[in-house]
């Protein structure tokens, strides 16, 4: 039995929650992984997993072995990185996950410089507005603007805040009037992001701390922030966006802020990546770069 390979297989099965998912990621059959884990259990003289029709469970011995297994595998990985001259600088393929709007509007501002600094890296972009399972998709780092991260074992490094604001096209406001109070918003159509739990509801707070919940009529909804941005510039109604999505449109006057005295809940830009004691150089290089880049104000108006 190749004990090191069996330990890798066992950890993969536990991390992904099933033999099928682990076999698919490893590019081997379900039978091969199951045999490796059974051989490992015989070698250790202890049952590591209990199997039901729906899911796997770690036994008490399995949980203890998993903790030691992770430490050993990460130490082996760290040793390999330190001993390999090839790994002394960022190399290989960096798989980067981003939301579609962030990919279209932000990456062009800093990714070329990052690639120029690390010319041995190849970048593989995964653009999606869904929260992707980083382990299953084998994504190294995901940059995500959100107000709530799902509970997981992933590491989330805060990069910067993301203000959310109401905007409209000047032509729309000229034809329909500019709302001066939150109550006046109810007479205007909202362009809503359909992926939100309540696309028509706004939670507003003014500088005195007064809060208002407003329900606006919906004229158009879409699952694409970029499509909503185009609709807002086309004067179809009022919309709420992270500032980075409309930053250039605010600068050139295609969109203007609405109700500037009232604020929507802010969001946060995170770098999310699998937990590991020893980060590969390519991942560390990206994290350090984006941390430094977004430490400066980027979306001032």
UniProtKB/TrEMBL annotation:
Keyword Magnesium carried by entry: no
InterPro entries registered for this protein in UniProt:
LysR-type_TF_proteobact-type (IPR058163), LysR_HTH_N (IPR000847), LysR_subst-bd (IPR005119), WH-like_DNA-bd_sf (IPR036388), WH_DNA-bd_sf (IPR036390)
Keywords associated with the record = DNA-binding, Transcription, Transcription regulation
Per the record, the domain of life is Bacteria
PROSITE patterns membership:
HTH_LYSR
- HTH lysR-type domain: residues covered: 1-59
* The family this protein is said to belong to: Belongs to the LysR transcriptional regulatory family.
Q: What is the name listed in the Swiss-Prot or TrEMBL entry for this protein? A: LysR family transcriptional regulator
Organism this protein belongs to: Pseudomonas juntendi
